[in-house]
Write a structure and sequence with these properties.
Blueprint (H helix, E strand, L loop, with lengths): L37 E2 L17 E13 L4 E12 L3 E7 L4 E7 L2 E2 L1 E5 L2 E5 L9 E10 L16 E4 L4 E4 L19 E10 L3 E4 L2 E10 L8 E14 L6 E4 L2 E6 L5 E6 L1 H4 L9 H20 L7 E5 L3 E2 L2 E2 L3 E2 L6 E2 L5 H9 L8 E2 L6 H17 L5 H10 L23 H18 L1 H15 L3 E2 L1 H12 L4 H7 L10
Length: 495
Amino acid sequence: MAMRFRPHLIPVAVAAVGLTALALAPATSAQTKGARYTPGAAGVGDPYFPHLGNGGYDVGHYKLDLAYDPDYDQLDGTATLTATATQDLSAFNLDLSGLDVEKVTVDGRKVDFKRRGTELTVTPRKGLRQGSTFTVAVTYGGVPKTIVGSPVVFGSPYGFLHTNDGAYVGAEPDGASTWFPSNDHPSDKARYDFSLTVPEGLGAVANGVLTSKSAGTEAFSRRRSAARAVTYNWHEDGLMATYLATIDIGKWDVKTGTTPGGVPMYVAIDPDVRKLPAPGGVDPIDYYYDTTAKSTDLWVKEFGEYPFNTAGAIIDDARFNGQPLGFSLETNGKPVYSAIRPDRTIAHEMAHQWWGNSVAPKNWQQIWLNESFARWSNWYWTEKQGGNTVATEARNTYNAHPDTDAWWNVVIADPKRDTMFHNRSYHGGGMVLQFLREKIGHETFMKLLRTWYAQNRDKHVVTEQFAALAEQVSGQDLDAFFKTWIYSPGRPPLP
């Protein structure tokens, strides 16, 4: 195994800056001829999170070479980003919260960097021409801090979560920067390779497929001497937003195979969770495997080809301050769960592989294109299993909220940052999709979903594109429908 540098860093207790992070525009220019090289923007201008992400470049690949020592909650390593400059760059920013940076290189040469808030500003030795490809490597370490108290997720802890035997990552919407330097916005997808080194006796699961596993020793930075360790290498060849990246470390029972339709499967479950009862009294690992496989094949049939190189699940005994967490969260390929969840929840998270992960929001205002589509899908799953029909669920949702209910004040197409994960973005939008299905007909609606996926796989979308496609596929004028149900507050009469 090739030698890899691990920084010997003592963690600094820096509280994670979550959703109100301070931005910093790069102020220093690289040494270049002329004045046409300018700093990239410290933020992509997202209407809800204006300082998330960064301008001036597009990341094509992340290589995360990391070691994690649960005895000290210490994460050390190097993140190498391969990117393309989208302007003539004198400097550029990365998003990184709380961790200590040892050094930064650009194209193999050590360069200057500055920190402020969650912004890491990098100044290459010479300007980077628009269209040129470059690599930036950041060697860093520390104790990743869990984000707590954010109104966006109703105060629930998220991001990098420390468990009894390792770690668990659920990063939506802005938690990726708590554990690796990145262009932390869904508008910049990339491919990933993970090299994860953990103490012997533990496993490490990430997105994609496991390509190799090797045993050796590791000089974990907080230990006095090297320790026996295992390195797990994972490769995600699908395009993935930063918030969908996950690493999950601990003790695992694993089941692999393929769905009946041929999609590769990988399910990892914490042995403690496996002791809990699952529906039907079956082994929880079989319950997750079979339900994931069945829902994946249903969505392939209804929506189109599976977007990624594996399907599956990661189920951990995730807690914060000793209290169990209610996590069920999409990641690329293998959603993360913190307990035994209903089959409809598993179907919901697997539907996200199409809606949100592959067909991705251009910005966080478009969140209903993720959540409403996944909610409609899990209602459709329930209908297919002999439960309530989607029409019944839609009307149950409508009838549960009288016109005096503030629920109707959230506008589906613009729910605002602190209410972007409001029930209106889930049930409310799922209800609207069902009303659209009834208006244009089932076959036309399913054709619309398949076309929406086929045209926008691996791309970024906004609501206006979906409305326009719905009109094109159905041949109907739907302006009034979308204005009433998507763009406006209030409780309209049932259609």
